[in-house]
Amino acid sequence: MTYLYKAAGPIRGTDILPLNGLRDRYPDLYARELEKYAARLETLNNPVYPLDCCWSDVVFLSPVHPAPIFAALQESGRIGPVTIDYWTLDADLLDPARTCILLKRHDPQLRPQPAEDFIPYDPRTVAELSTPSERALHRLRTLNATEPLYPWADIPHILHRGPIPLARFRDQEGNQAGTARQ
What we know:
It is a single chain. The protein has helices at residues 19-25, 27-34, 66-76, 123-128, 134-141; strands spanning 3-7, 15-16, 47-48, 53-54, 58-61, 86-90, 99-102, 118-120, 157-161, 164-165, 169-170. It is of the alpha+beta class. A hairpin with a 4-residue loop joins strand 3 and strand 4. The strands form 4 sheets. It has a 4-stranded antiparallel β-sheet with strand order 5-9-7-8, with no helix packed on it. A 3-stranded antiparallel β-sheet has the order 1-6-11, with no helix packed on it. It has a two-stranded antiparallel sheet with strand order 2-10. The model has no long low-confidence stretch (mean pLDDT 90).
């Protein structure tokens, strides 16, 4: 089975929502999440070509387990030891018609990502992308004190247009996400 990863966190309702979905249903959560984009609000309108939508219309997932990413950040000295709380999703549960893969080739000048960086979604491709590149890990290991912390800057992204039912996600113990720890 191939897994996708999503940062765990408090959720309202029964779905993981894209940013625009939060704006409509939970304005306070939208405001909190929007803060992540404060220095780059233009990103929210970046096109997601294969899904005919924009950045704020998709839910972001990672094909890469978060542990090696945060271990590399620790090596840089930019963060201390952290407990990584994440949820998993079986890659076979996403509809390929509503999902694509964005190959992230970290280049701060490359905005928006060119159309050729988006490829069709297939769980077999996700499995091939599950190991972070040495280039991505090297960048994280060598961050200096002034570089922004963008852990997933050059890690492929799985983009799903619209909500994903929370019931499809599992916590690290295999329980339905959002139910085990209260």
